[in-house]
């Protein structure tokens, strides 16, 4: 097995991307887009004519620019391009056999792949991820189209800003976005795919339920298990004839909306690939943490159910969902303060779970404080997305499922929309929005990069209002993100939401899953302790790891009724037999079953012989079946006691048998006689 | 190893479906239904046959419920709350959501009938808490050894067929299913699975149905005629399933014909149920799923709640009343009022359980029905029997059995004589052993068992290498569905000599091994001893007969260079015409078919000649042949073709001379 990390994970919006080679199949794990690099572009046209020409003056001006602080003019005023996973371009798309998509975010780069000529991989995605991912991509395309209305389409296929002369004079922060830390990512920039590319991509996707078995090429069994991060997101298990792999992406143990992290489903795999983690940068300090794993206890591990329950309980004990709910409650009170002060609240957060939670909590809070403030959701796909969340009980957490069983809607928003507490509009210029418009208000709208979507217009509208509030996710570089809107008088609240597994959960999870091998990111190794029971392989970006195979052979199952009909032959130590029947390779199993058509009574005769025949013995065997002859010694037999010689047959017909050390040749004109001689040889030789 | 099937219900009848299957140490109860035709203890399966002591938790691994119909779930609250089973119960999400409504509706009707409810409202609630919901295709690991999986069955919302696998033994229990899509549901869909046993319903074991469309029209016409004449239409149904299907049908018709006649539901139940249907829209048919965004098919515009006071109100109406089959409750109450008038219409489902009034109405055309010894109802109204049904017909059953090709099949949920006919068909047409056990009978079937061996890479590789006879099983074939949205799951199947190149090696105390024959000798530390045949024989040629008299140079002189090739290519053509298989290779001066190798022999004392064969004279050309044991038959066939053939060489060689 080979493993190559193409791109480390970068939080909720930019999952990791890896390439896996199992049983001769190439598997791509996720295909994300780095939308944070959208910050490179300016969302609003500025009067400043920065892009006129490359004369000496402007170069000097730019050099001067490099020394002063970043301002809106440093951003690139052009139709944005999108940054894909750099290393993925080094692989031939037509050689990929399988693509596994773990989350809607891990799907955003997929249309680039699917539109490649000769791309023929099987793409597996959960049903819910496919639907949400499709909506996200459609929204991205539509927001991008709107952006183009400002700048007009690019006239050349190679934009000005991508020229080296331009890049060279960029501010450090900007250069980092454009070229990456190691100045290698220039080739990763791509113009956005089209709506047709998205449609075509969706046609090539095969959707799965959680824990549904998908069998690739009869050999690999691939299953998705919920990861708890978002509706439909998943971890994967890949079971091949020689290796059982679990791939763990951003996972959240207890979710307030999506199905919880199903770690029990990942048990029984000998290799775990840990991909993404939630960490608050370097601040996550393990030394102060008492959740260290005790290696002694692990030795006494037994597989009984109590133990599993116990361990599950320990994994779930410091329930992070309460903390997350508190964060939402805090945002809601801040929002309430704002609207009471006459300011509006702008929430450009694109995490479905956060929006659903905020909508419910906010409406409760607004109602209890009898603030008559409208909530608007502005997005081209919001209506469909919200409707979708109310018809997918199977993909939600237990509490939401209980609502189905008691006949209530899964989320409150359907009711809130009906009661006109929430208004949903496809765009800022929707006529219904204009007639409904009321300030202060609370608005949810994309895009979190503050470069695309309705948020751009709204931010320009409110950025100078000190009473208004902007709620951002932490992880967004606010300095650069807010550049185009400076000077900002608006209050900004940045909030960090849980977006994966905390490092301290790695150890207890390993204890539960009991893998033999663990793949772990090299840069995080120092932050966790892993007991010796697991062999650990450390990976870093763009390096290929070779993992030795644990099993040398493939298991094959032979139906006993078939095996009993085999023609067994006993040797010194072992009994052997030739196989018969039909070999089925399906669902990763190799099974030998009796053929549907009974073998046409093939002659049961050995095809492979070994040992040394003895001419005399052969003659004796031949005489038993009425074949008689004499031994004619070969010339050089004096020096060896070997059985080599020539047997001449006179009866019933003439034939000659050349018996040699390594081979025997039967010369006969008669089929029947020849076949009898072979039978005699079968007796004096070993064979099968 | 064997699978034991204890049929506790629906054996040679319809009602109280319940089969307890013991499979490799696990014991699964499929369905836990009640019989609508009885009010005494016969209405429930005889659970004492599972455990004499009533220790059901240890006696059963799990209970699986296929769908929310009472004949499949009606006894569940009794089993869990009164009998005390506390183990896991599995059913699909819609079944878990809708079953309490069905059970509650039934319980209320029983109360009205003044019988012992046997279970209470609380029992239903408590019972449902034990239920673990499953999604379609989701592989559920019940415990370390038992795996179950649900497949779409059509029939009613959330109905599923269940696959269960323990170790090497696997089976499917279908529950009720429909192989054709209806107004609101898709057709049943299942993967091709390797099964030891299939337990299938057989409600319509001998019926073949034609198009559903015509039958729907008949129903609509009957309803329309009745209301147009001012009559009242009673549609006794259960709250869920058929009610929604017929309602979609009527709604559509009402819109098209612009009818204003009210459509009523007897209880708020059906209206409440629509809330569930809306959330579970993903479980309906493709068509309804697609139109969901614009119009939810379960938002019925013309439907209103019914009130008892409306029973004798003037004017036409259509009423959906529970329970179906008029087994009691409100539908019976309305039936007693409406049946005596000839302008009214009563529609009956395609199937009514024996013992119900529905069943009596269906058998012949009674003019009077005795409810009990004091009450008698005059039946003058029209009766329309719905001829479309959410059950598969006989063709559908045969198709499914054929598609799954289990080693054994058991028929349940049908009528004894018809089941016997179907059983015969399955055995004779499909060659599958089939059984129709009666209630409380146990059927034991053997299961396939496997020995496990490690296969070497060389063997696996040789099997994976494509060759001419290598077939990839057709992908469309892998998933059976009445509709066309089947998913492809490719698998490989090798059934040629490459399998026979494998050698199974068993050594005491070690795991069995499969290796390729080429690896065997190395493993044994032995040297190969090649056993070969050789035969050098003469073949007559035409040219030689003629040229001899002219005393031209000898044949040996001529048979050099190009001429050898000409002879070989002539032979090659001849053989490819005569041999049906074998890969004939013309190698210039040699001819090769598998291991059979042939060349022209010019040596006078070739060791491969047998002296007493043909005279060694110059009329003939000698061919030296050798082959290995594996191609013995082929070799003798080639030799006999050659011996009966004279090489037509004249024209060609003359030119050269
Ligand atoms: Zn049913
Ligand atoms: Zn039934
Ligand atoms: Zn010869």
UniProtKB/TrEMBL annotation, chain A:
Subcellular compartments: Cytoplasm; Nucleus
SUPFAM superfamilies: Metallo-hydrolase/oxidoreductase
GO CC terms of this entry: cytoplasm; integrator complex
Biological process according to GO: snRNA 3'-end processing
Keyword presence, Lyase: no
SMART domains, per the entry: Beta-Casp (SM01027)
Keyword line: Cytoplasm, Nucleus
Domain Beta-Casp: 359-480
Pfam families, sorted: Beta-Casp (PF10996), Lactamase_B_6 (PF16661)
PANTHER family: INTEGRATOR COMPLEX SUBUNIT 9
Family: Belongs to the metallo-beta-lactamase superfamily. RNA-metabolizing metallo-beta-lactamase-like family. INTS9 subfamily.
This protein's name: Beta-Casp domain-containing protein
Automatic annotation (TrEMBL), chain B:
Any one Gene Ontology BP term: snRNA processing
Domain Metallo-beta-lactamase, first and last residues per copy: 15-231
Single GO molecular function: hydrolase activity
Top-level taxon in the UniProt lineage: Eukaryota
Domain annotation Beta-Casp: ranges: 243-361
Coiled coil: none
Keywords: Hydrolase, Nucleus
Protein name per Swiss-Prot or TrEMBL: Cleavage and polyadenylation specificity factor 73 kDa subunit-II
Record organism: Theobroma cacao
């Amino acid at each position: 097995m080979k493993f190559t990390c193409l791109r480390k994970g970068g939080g909720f919006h930019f999952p990791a991307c890896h390439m896996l080679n199992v049983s001769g199949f190439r598997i791509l794990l996720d295909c994300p887009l780095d939308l944070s690099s959208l910050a490179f572009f300016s969302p609003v046209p500025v009067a400043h004519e920065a892009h006129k020409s490359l004369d000496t003056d402007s170069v000097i001006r730019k050099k001067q620019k490099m020394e002063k602080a970043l301002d809106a003019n440093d951003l690139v005023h052009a139709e944005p391009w999108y940054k894909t996973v750099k290393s993925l371009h080094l692989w031939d798309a037509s050689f990929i056999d399988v693509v596994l998509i773990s989350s809607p975010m891990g799907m955003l780069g997929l249309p680039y792949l699917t539109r490649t000529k000769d791309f023929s991989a099987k793409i597996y995605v959960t049903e819910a991820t496919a639907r949400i991912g499709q909506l996200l991509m459609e929204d991205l395309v539509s927001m991008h189209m709107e952006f183009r209305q400002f700048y007009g389409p690019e006239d050349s296929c190679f934009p000005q800003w991508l020229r080296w002369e331009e890049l060279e004079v960029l501010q450090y922060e900007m250069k980092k976005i454009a070229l990456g830390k190691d100045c290698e990512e220039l080739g990763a920039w791509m113009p956005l795919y089209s709506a047709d590319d998205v449609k075509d991509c969706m046609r090539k996707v095969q959707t799965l339920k959680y824990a549904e078995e998908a069998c690739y090429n009869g050999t690999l069994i691939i299953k998705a298990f919920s990861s708890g991060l978002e509706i439909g997101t998943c971890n994967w298990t890949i079971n091949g004839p020689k290796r059982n792999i679990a791939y763990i992406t951003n996972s959240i143990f207890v979710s307030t909306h999506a199905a919880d992290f199903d770690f029990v489903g990942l048990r029984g795999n000998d290799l775990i690939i840990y991909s993404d983690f939630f960490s608050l940068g370097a601040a996550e300090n393990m030394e102060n943490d008492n959740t260290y794993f005790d290696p002694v206890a692990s030795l006494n591990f037994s597989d009984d159910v109590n133990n599993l329950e116990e361990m599950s309980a320990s994994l779930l004990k410091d329930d992070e969902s309460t903390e997350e709910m508190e964060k939402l409650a805090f945002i809601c009170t801040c929002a309430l303060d704002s609207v009471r002060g006459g300011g509006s609240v702008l929430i450009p957060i694109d995490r479905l779970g956060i929006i659903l939670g905020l909508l419910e909590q906010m409406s409760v809070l607004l109602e209890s404080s009898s603030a008559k403030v409208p909530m608007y959701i502005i997005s081209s796909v919001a209506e469909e997305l919200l409707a979708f969340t109310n018809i997918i009980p199977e993909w939600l957490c237990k509490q939401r499922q209980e609502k189905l069983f008691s006949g209530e809607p899964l989320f409150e928003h359907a009711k809130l929309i009906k009661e006109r507490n929430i208004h949903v509009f496809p765009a800022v210029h929707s006529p219904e929005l204009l007639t409904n418009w009321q300030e202060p208000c609370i608005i949810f709208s994309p895009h979190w990069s503050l470069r695309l979507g309705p948020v751009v217009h709204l931010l320009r509208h409110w950025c100078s209002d000190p009473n208004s509030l902007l709620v951002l996710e932490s992880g967004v570089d606010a300095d650069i993100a807010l550049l185009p809107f400076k000077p900002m008088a608006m209050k900004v609240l940045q909030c960090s939401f849980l977006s994966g597994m905390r490092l301290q959960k790695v150890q207890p999870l390993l204890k539960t899953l009991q893998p033999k091998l663990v793949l772990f990111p090299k840069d995080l190794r120092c932050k966790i302790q892993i007991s010796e029971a697991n062999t650990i392989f450390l990976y870093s970006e763009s390096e290929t790891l070779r993992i030795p195979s644990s099993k040398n052979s493939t298991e094959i199952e032979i139906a006993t009724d078939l095996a009993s009909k085999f023609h067994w032959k006993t040797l010194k130590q072992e009994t052997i037999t030739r196989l018969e029947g039909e070999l089925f390779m399906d669902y990763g199993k190799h099974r030998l079953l009796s053929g549907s058509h009974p073998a046409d009574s093939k002659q049961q005769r050995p095809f492979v012989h070994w040992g040394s025949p003895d001419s005399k013995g052969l003659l004796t065997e031949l005489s038993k079946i009425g074949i008689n002859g004499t031994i004619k010694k070969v010339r050089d037999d004096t020096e060896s006691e070997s059985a080599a010689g020539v047997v001449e047959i006179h009866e019933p017909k003439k034939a000659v048998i050349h018996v040699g050390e390594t081979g025997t040749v039967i010369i006969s004109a008669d089929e029947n006689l020849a076949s009898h001689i072979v039978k005699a040889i079968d007796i004096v030789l070993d064979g099968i | 190893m064997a699978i034991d099937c204890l049929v506790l219900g629906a054996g040679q009848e319809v009602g109280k479906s319940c089969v307890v299957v013991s499979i490799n140490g696990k014991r699964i109860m499929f369905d836990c239904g009640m019989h609508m035709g009885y009010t005494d203890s016969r209405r429930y399966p005889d659970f004492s046959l599972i455990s004499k002591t009533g220790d059901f938790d240890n006696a059963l691994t799990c209970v699986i419920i296929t769908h929310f119909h009472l004949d499949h779930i009606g006894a569940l609250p009794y089993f869990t709350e009164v009998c005390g089973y506390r183990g896991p119960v599995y059913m699909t999400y819609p079944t878990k959501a809708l079953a309490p409504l069905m059970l509650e509706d039934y319980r209320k009707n029983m109360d009205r009938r003044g019988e012992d409810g046997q279970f209470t409202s609380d029992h239903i609630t408590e019972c449902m808490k034990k239920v673990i919901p499953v999604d379609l295709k989701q592989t559920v690991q019940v415990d370390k050894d038992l795996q179950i999986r649900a497949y779409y069955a059509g029939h009613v919302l959330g109905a599923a067929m269940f696959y269960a696998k323990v170790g090497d033994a696997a089976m499917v229990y279908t529950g009720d299913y429909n192989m054709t899509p209806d107004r609101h549901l898709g057709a049943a869909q299942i993967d091709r699975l390797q099964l030891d046993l299939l337990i299938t319903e057989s409600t319509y074991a001998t019926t073949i149905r034609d198009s559903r469309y015509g039958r729907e029209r008949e129903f609509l016409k009957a309803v329309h005629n009745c209301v147009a004449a001012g009559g009242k239409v009673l549609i006794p149904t259960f709250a869920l399933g058929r009610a929604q299907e017929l309602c979609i049908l009527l709604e559509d018709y009402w819109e098209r014909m612009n009818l204003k006649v009210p459509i009523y539901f007897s209880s708020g139940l059906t209206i409440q149920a629509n809330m569930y249907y809306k959330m579970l829209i993903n479980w309906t048919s493709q068509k309804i799923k697609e139109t969901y965004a614009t119009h939810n098919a379960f938002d019925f515009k013309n439907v209103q709640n019914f009130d008892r006071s409306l029973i004798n109100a003037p004017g036409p109406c259509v009423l959906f009343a529970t329970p179906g089959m008029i087994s009691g409750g409100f539908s019976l109450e309305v039936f007693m009022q409406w049946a005596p008038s000839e302008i009214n219409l009563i529609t009956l489902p395609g199937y009514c359980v024996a013992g119900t009034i529905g069943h009596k109405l269906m058998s012949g055309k009674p003019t009077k029905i005795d409810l009990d010894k004091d009450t008698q109802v005059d039946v003058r109204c029209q009766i329309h029997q719905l001829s479309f049904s959410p059950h598969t017909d006989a063709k559908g059953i045969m198709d499914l059995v054929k598609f799954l090709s289990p080693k054994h099949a058991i028929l349940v949920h049908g009528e004894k004589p018809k089941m016997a006919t179907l059983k015969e068909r399955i055995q004779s047409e499909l060659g599958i052993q089939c059984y129709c056990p009666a209630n409380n009978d146990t059927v034991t079937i053997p299961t396939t068992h496997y020995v496990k061996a490690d296969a070497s890479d060389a063997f696996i590789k040789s099997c994976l290498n494509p060759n001419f006879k290598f077939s990839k099983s057709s992908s469309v074939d892998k998933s059976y569905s009445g509709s066309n949205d089947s998913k492809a799951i490719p698998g490989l199947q090798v059934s040629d000599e490459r399998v026979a190149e494998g050698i199974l090696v068993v050594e005491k105390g070690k795991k069995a091994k499969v290796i390729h024959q080429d690896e065997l000798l190395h493993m044994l530390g032995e040297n190969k001893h090649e056993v070969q045949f050789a035969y050098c024989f003469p073949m007559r040629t035409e040219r030689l007969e003629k040229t001899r008299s002219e005393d031209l140079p000898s044949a040996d002189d001529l048979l050099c260079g190009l001429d050898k090739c000409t002879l070989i290519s002539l032979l090659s053509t001849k053989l490819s015409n005569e041999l049906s298989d074998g890969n004939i290779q013309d190698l210039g001066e040699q001819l090769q078919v598998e291991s059979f190798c042939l060349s022209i022999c010019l040596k006078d004392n070739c060791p491969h000649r047998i002296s007493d064969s043909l005279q060694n004279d110059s009329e003939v050309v000698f061919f030296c042949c050798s082959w290995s044991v594996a191609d013995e038959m082929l070799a003798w066939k080639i030799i006999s073709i050659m011996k009966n053939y004279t090489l037509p060489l004249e024209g060609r060689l003359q030119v050269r001379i």
